[in-house]
Amino acid sequence: MPAEPPASPEHPAVPATDDWQAQLRAKGYRLTPQRELVLAAVQRLGHATPDEVLAAAREESPAVNLSTVYRTLELLEELGLVRHAHLTDRAPTYHSTTAPTHAHLVCRDCGRVGELPARDLDPLTELLRRDHGFEPDLGHLTIFGTCRDCLGATGPG
């Protein structure tokens, strides 16, 4: 895997998860086992819906409930530890911010989710800034289409 470019205004560094406990406490929140389980599940699963996070967290503690997962995901997003994207018409999908900023590629045929590094969208970002005075949030960008495997199975067009 190629090395990521250093942080820049276009691709800011993301907060390290090793200090998430301090971030929680600094904002007046307690560190709870449920919060630890939810963050661990998001990091382990990659892109996951709240229901998927709940299932993973319940493997460790059956006492975790869906409302706790939603509240915790909202808090973790406020702290900059997770982000969400809408990859389907259903629940949002969450992922850890330890991954470099990326857009999402979703295959309409098989449902596979891929990641497109933000640097690959630099020409679009520059055009939006220059011509529209607009700063895009690439972590929320989802592009729907057909993946390479599905194209190979059916042929283009």
Low-confidence runs = 1-17
What can be said about the biggest beta sheet? 3 strands, mixed
**Beta-strand residue percentage:** 5-15%
Record field, number of beta strands: 5
**What structural category do the secondary elements indicate?**
alpha+beta
Radius of gyration: 17 Å
Number of domains: 2
Gross morphology is flat
Q: Note the total helix count.
A: 6
CATH architecture grouping of the largest domain: Orthogonal Bundle
CATH topology name of the largest domain, in short, is Arc Repressor Mutant, subunit A
- The name of the CATH superfamily of the largest domain reads Winged helix-like DNA-binding domain superfamily/Winged helix DNA-binding domain
- What is the CATH domain class of the largest domain? Mainly Alpha
Question: What portion of residues is helical?
Answer: 25-40%
Mean pLDDT metric: 83
Task: Strand order, main sheet: write it out.
Answer: 4-3-5
Distance between the termini: 31 Å
User: How would you spell out the order of helices and strands?
Assistant: HHHHEEEEHEH
Keywords: DNA-binding, Metal-binding, Repressor, Transcription, Transcription regulation, Zinc
InterPro entries: FUR, Fur_C, WH-like_DNA-bd_sf, WH_DNA-bd_sf
Protein name: Transcriptional repressor
GO biological process, one term: negative regulation of DNA-templated transcription
